[in-house]
Amino acid sequence: MTSAEETPGDRIDRIDRIDRIDRSTGQGFLAVALDEARLGLAEGGIPIGAALFGRDGTVLGRGHNRRVQDDDASCHAETAAFRSAGRRRHYRDCVMVTTLSPCWYCSGLVRQFQIGAVVIGEARNFLGGHEWLADLGVEILELDDPACIDLLAGFIKAQPELWFEDIGR
Ligand SMILES: [Zn+2]
Questions:
Q1: 71: left (phi > 0), else alpha (psi -120 to 50), else beta?
Q2: Per-residue pLDDT for 117 more than 90?
């Protein structure tokens, strides 16, 4: 079929077929972010991890929340992963993978750089801006992953003051 014969509906179907990240691929991506979250916990920090992937599964960058480690409230998991990826011409073909629903600041990062997809470990311990991103056309895959839920829930129970500092409450 030539593009002249393609209807808008066909085009949406085609994009869906090409772009959708399936759950098993998403879980594979999430394993890297979860490793980062555990590293952060081992360092005495807040256990939230992230990684920036290419659609082909290449890890472009990875990182974790470093509020405690660096005494820097702006170093979130997603920003750390994004910065470690260095410069790129564009990000539409990239996937931000994070253990926790991205806060407004990190959702803004996804929006600003037009990252095409976000894979989220969980949104039970914290609901950020991922529904806003979905409304803007960003592909969102929420995995509701028990390991991510348990890791952060355990931390919140153990260090509630640090958690509430992180989320600004
Ligand atoms: Zn954030």
A1: left
A2: yes
pLDDT band at 6 (very low <50, low <70, confident <90, very high): low
Respond yes or no: is residue 5 known to be catalytic.
no
Query: Which tokens go with 110?
Result: 């996804």
Predicted confidence at residue 12, as pLDDT, reads 54
Q: How far is the CA of 78 from the centre of ligand 1 (A)?
A: 6
Structure tokens, 51: 């990684």
38 contacts: CB under 8 Å, gap ≥ 6: 47, 49, 151
Q: Specify whether the CB–CB gap between 63 and 83 falls below 8 A.
A: yes
Tell me, in angstroms, the distance from the centre of ligand 1 to residue 106's CA.
4
CA of 105 to the centre of ligand 1 (A): 5
Catalytic residue among 78, 122, 131, 165: 78
Output the pLDDT for position 19. Answer: 64
